[in-house]
Amino acid sequence: MQKKGISAVVATILIVLLSVAAIGIVWAVLKPAIQKSAARVETKCIDVDLSIDNANCSSGTLKVTLNKGEIKAIKVVFYDSSGESLGDVKTLTNVPEELGTRVYNTQDLNFPSEASSLNIAAIVESETGEEINCGLVYPQPVAC
């Protein structure tokens, strides 16, 4: 009778060891994939706070403030009255310093005549020197 009790203990130990081995194998497979994905996450975009203070399509002026962070460029996307992108994206490299404001005019932007709204996106530089688009600042285009 004692043999039956011992075999149950041995079976339990084997199940625990197999579970630990399976967890180790799964972790060995997933760890490199997780590390590779984490390496692509850029935290510089989190540190950027860029805003449109004023936009006037008829006069062709745009006032932008960089409240926080360091950026390399600003992309400006123009939209028509129906909210469709005009496909005309301007890249501005003369960006404001942190806590600074810059006014862009017609010479900088060349506003499309059918533009009725716009949005901006910050471009930052990664540690490797690659340009990263941080995405549009506003969920909806800003009327001008």
How would you summarize what this structure contains?
The protein has two helices and eight strands, in the order H-E-E-E-E-E-H-E-E-E. With 144 residues, it is of the alpha+beta class.
Report what the structure shows.
- With 144 residues, the protein is α+β, with helices and mostly antiparallel strands.
- The chain has 2 domains: 1-41; 49-143, Immunoglobulin-like (Sandwich).
- 29% of the residues lie in helices and 37% in strands.
- The chain has 2 helices and 8 strands; from the N terminus they run αβββββαβββ.
- The chain has helices spanning 2-39, 106-109, and strands at 49-56, 61-68, 73-79, 85-92, 100-104, 117-125, 131-136, 142-143.
- The strands form 2 sheets. Strands 3, 4, 6, 7 and 8 form a 5-stranded antiparallel β-sheet that branches.
- β6 and β7 (131-136) form a beta hairpin.
- It is elongated and about 90 Å long.
- The N and C termini lie far apart (88 Å).
- The relative contact order is 0.18.
- The model has no long low-confidence stretch (mean pLDDT 87).
